[in-house]
Amino acid sequence: MKRNLLIVAGLASLAAGCTSSAPKEEKPDRPNIIFIMTDDHSFQTLSTYDNRFIQTPGLDRIAKEGVTFTNSFVANSICGPSRACMLTGKHSHTNGFRDNRDQFDGSQQTFPKLLQQAGYQTAIIGKWHLKSDPTGFDYWSILPDQGNYYNPDFISKDGKKRHEGYVTNLITDFSIGWMKQRDASKPFCLLLHHKAVHRIWMPDTPYLRLFKDQKFPLPSNFYDDYAGRTAAGKQEMSIIKDMDLVYDLKMLDKEGTIQTPYRNAYKNGEYARMTNTQRKAWDEVYDPIIRHFLEAKLEGKELAEWKYNRYMQDYLASVRSLDDNVGRLLKYLDESGLAENTVVVYTSDQGFYMGEHGWFDKRFMYEESFRTPLLMRLPKAYHAHGKISQLVQNIDYAPTFLELAGIQVPSDIQGESLLPLLKGEKPASWRKSLYYHFYEFPGEHAVRRHYGIRTDRYKLIHFYNDCDIWELFDLKKDPSEMKNIYDDPKYKQLIEHLKFQLKHLQEKYNDPIINN
Ligand code: SGN
Ligand code: CA
User: Fold this and answer.
1) Is any atom of ligand 1 closer than 6 Å to the C-beta of 83?
2) Dihedral through CA 157, CA 163, CA 166, CA 169, nearest 10?
3) Mutation choice for ligand 1 from 99, 131, 199, CB with most ligand atoms inside 8 A
């Protein structure tokens, strides 16, 4: 795709060669960028995409005043790798961060570094999860590893400090605080990266009762038997089998009747971090739930569906805080006058299963975890509104941010700038297929390594390493991916064609082809 240089008059010339000591009169129009990312936030629980479970007016506002990408995907559905893809605009094998056990090579090119070199003030506040210290940021305040929901520690250049409060509120407070004290003569790029709504989905105290008695519709494939999908059958992310009653669902009874593998991880971890006041509020809600649960002595499907509802209740109450805080941030942008020239981007590091296939977690190239929400509100100079349906991927954010800032996109970036789409164009040469590659096996949740291709209609996946399994889905006829049609002779030609395209993508991105 031809890389368009900026649109907004005069900006390109300003950008080239700017340094952090750029003179004040150069500030005018380069847009600020606020890149909000959450962790594990499913599109099923963002009402712009799906309003069956929760209303999210704060997030919906970004969509209403901007654009909603309806076909937004990740390159590798897991946290650290997703973040590395976004920072570099490159697939995992190219940026070197393939799974959560890797360490990010911070000496490589990233979009925050390029923005910083062009005179932007850059900051990251919240989850980082790339092990090495952030580079390319004037300011950083990050959670160690996964971080905590209650009274989390933050690490900055000055060391580690614990802050009292709920993580989603704190990250927003710190972000607004940073914007207030920044050098207003320069444009800024702020990465506001939430911990929520990562496992173990802990709501803030005012929201503990919000969904307490609510029951949710069970996904039609909750009791999936994984017929024809061997790798799916071998995973360890099942609500029935793998979701821990105490750790995940907070059934920490004081008598110790409920003994589970991760009871102590919760008891000595998140639960122990609370202040007495927080714990009192928590126990007032959870103790009666625990009592009823013990009395009910649930088994089989009743137990499975109780677990599903309990999971949904906590997850959705955690989304509530996220949405409030996005609303609060947008209000600050209005009040401070920043709204007009600030791009606001909302995404998650990947999608998540809300009981589909019987699962929580992510990793698979199946739709719920391959997709990720993507909303953007643009500065006044851009007029795109509504839905954008082209296939986009998280490697596209870096080139988009660079182009928005008037910076030429380096030729080694593998993503495509979304700018033409944001300008309302429909480029005929836009990509027709997406490439995906997941590596974390052996590993937690036991999802086999796999790579694949997705077009508008079809998805071809190859699971490899300790297995050699191909899957093909017709997403039009089978949107829930229940029927692997790879062995159906009817599709022989289609498979050949998709394999050819897949090979082409592997060559284009220089990812060595794996035959097994
Ligand atoms: C933790 C979670 C996993 C989760 C990974 C990766 N276990 O290890 O359930 O898949 O993070 O998540 S936990 O017991 O620590 O909660 S990611 O979003 O960081 O990639
Ligand atoms: Ca994640």
Assistant:
1) no
2) -60
3) 199
Ligand 2 centre to CA of 237 (Å) is 14
Packed helices 300-336 and 276-296: angle between N→C axes, nearest 10 degrees: 150
Measure 243 CA to ligand 2 centroid, in angstroms: 17
Atom 5 of ligand 1, nearest CA residue: 444
Of all ligands present, the nearest one to the C-alpha of 242 is 1
Q: Considering its fold, how many domains does the chain have in total? A: 3
- Give the number of the atom of ligand 1 that is nearest the alpha carbon of residue 248: 16
Q: Are residues 266 and 330 in the same domain?
A: no
Indicate whether 416 and 492 sit together in one domain. Answer: no
The parts of the chain modelled with pLDDT lower than 70 are 1-28, 515-516
DSSP 355-386: SGGGB-S--SSSHHHHB--EEEE--TT----E
Residue 1, both tokens: 């795709």
Residue range(s) defining the domain that contains residue 272: 230-312
Is residue 209, in this structure, part of any structural domain at all? Answer: no
Could you tell me if 478 and 397 lie in one domain?
no
* Cis before 399 (ω within 30): no
- Read off the CATH number of the domain in which 160 is found: 3.40.720.10
pTM of the model: 0.94
Does residue 513 form part of some domain? no
CB-ligand 1 contact for 105 (6 Å cutoff): no
Domain boundary among 404, 427, 450: 427
**Rounded Cα gap, residues 382 and 484, in angstroms:** 43
- pLDDT (tens digit, 9 = 90+) per residue, 449-484? 999 999 999 999 999 999 999 999 999 999 999 999
- Say yes or no: 75 and 196 in one domain: yes
Same domain (yes/no): 403, 440: no
Among 256, 287, 312, the domain boundary falls at 312
Here the CATH number for the domain that contains residue 445 is 3.30.1120.10
What tokens appear for 425 in the block? 């164009």
List, in order, residues 6 or more apart from 366 with CB less than 8 Å away.
232, 357, 481
Ligand number nearest to the C-alpha of 246: 1
Q: Which atom of ligand 1 is nearest to the CA of 350?
A: 18
In this prediction, residue 382 carries a pLDDT of 80
Are 303 and 416 found together in one domain?
Answer: no
- Does residue 304 sit within a domain? yes
- pLDDT for the residue 18: 34
Domain shared by 103 and 187, yes or no? yes
Q: Is the CB of 79 under 6 A from ligand 1?
A: yes
State if residue 361 touches ligand 1 by the CB under 6 angstroms criterion.
yes
In this structure, the answer to whether residues 70 and 109 fall within a common structural domain is yes
Q: 84 alpha carbon to ligand 2 midpoint, in Å?
A: 12
Distance CA 202, CA 502 (A): 40
Ligand 1 near 197 CB (within 6 A) = no
For residue 7, is it within any domain?
no
